[in-house]
Write a structure and sequence with these properties.
Distance between the termini: 38 Å
Largest sheet: 5 strands, antiparallel
Structural class: alpha+beta
Order of helices and strands: HEEEHEEHHEHHHEHH
CATH class of the largest domain: Alpha Beta
Number of helices: 9
CATH topology of the largest domain: Phosphorylase Kinase, domain 1
Strand order of the largest sheet: 1-2-3-5-4
Number of strands: 7
Strand content: 5-15%
Shape: globular
């Protein structure tokens, strides 16, 4: 783990603001956003009241360093550590090419001259969350959901012969294992072993949960192509059920790793892991 963590401040962001917005804009405030664990996320406020987000890829901002399993840096593995400016830029290009509205990438810099790490300056989209809108104004939320449905359909139309990170696939890469079901099963079983080594309740249920994973994976039919959006979202009941247990295990193993770091919200990650462990232990109830 990183011994001393370095975070951005107004002084270290002034050159970034100048490069992104010109000399006519000056920086008033830098706010570090909560909940991130792989990269730093900051909201910049300028003198005219405008705002922008800055993402920083620096080892001191990445709490996963030192707690990742072996092989987690393999780009051919769809589940390897998903962080970095290259992956971010590739995802932004893919979404834009599919006609999906995403925050505009205003500046990408890996020169280390503006800031001592790779950075991206991104449009700050205001307006609150869809969840809040559903509660406060269901009619307006319906319109937003209609737009979102169109974007999801556009993403589903972008196809690849095998799964993987967009940057890896677009560069001509091919994963060693091309079956989503096989990838998910192997990952979930490895995570179950890891969790069982940390928690006696998981250890007691390890055999049962392992059998459940195999049983749930068996009826899932293989696919001939991958799409830009997860096809298990309500489209395939067997796949959805299998992935649900996999998700619970993933949201135990990962948060428990972060809870072993100096992350300021590690207690929240422990509670997240506990919630999903309880869900996994009750599965398939």
């Amino acid at each position: 783990m990183t011994a001393e963590r370095r975070f951005a401040d107004p002084g270290s962001m002034r050159l970034v603001v100048r490069a992104a917005f010109g000399r006519s804009r000056s920086l008033v405030r830098v706010e570090r956003l909560a909940h991130g664990s792989k990269k730093g996320a900051y909201r910049l406020t300028m003198d005219h009241g405008g705002t922008a987000l800055v993402y920083v890829w620096d080892d001191s901002e990445d709490y996963w360093q030192g707690v990742l399993p072996e092989g987690a840096d393999d780009p051919a593995d769809p589940f390897s550590h998903a962080s970095g400016l290259t992956l971010f830029e590739a995802a932004a290009r893919r979404l834009a090419s599919a006609g999906v509205r995403c925050p505009e990438l205003l500046l990408a810099d890996r020169s280390m001259t503006l800031y001592p790490a790779d950075i991206a300056v991104v449009e700050d989209v205001a307006g609150g969350s869809l969840g809040a809108l559903l509660e406060s104004d269901p009619a307006a939320a319906e319109r937003s959901l209609y737009v979102l449905a169109g974007w999801l359909a556009a993403m589903a139309a972008v196809r690849s012969p095998w799964p993987g990170k967009v940057a890896f696939i677009d560069a001509g890469g091919r994963p060693a294992v091309t079956s989503c079901e096989t990838l998910m099963l192997g990952r979930a079983l490895a995570q179950l072993t890891e969790i069982a080594g940390r928690d006696r309740r998981a250890a007691a249920a390890q055999d049962r949960l392992g059998e459940a994973l195999h049983s749930l994976a068996e009826p899932v039919e293989p696919r001939t192509a991958a799409t830009l959006i997860h096809g298990e979202l309500g489209l395939d009941e067997d796949r959805l059920r299998f992935y649900q247990l996999c998700m619970h295990l993933d949201l135990v193993a990962g948060p428990l790793r972060i809870a072993d770091t100096s992350h300021p919200e590690r207690d929240w990650f422990r509670s997240l892991a506990e919630h999903h462990l309880q869900r996994a232990l009750r599965f398939p109830a």
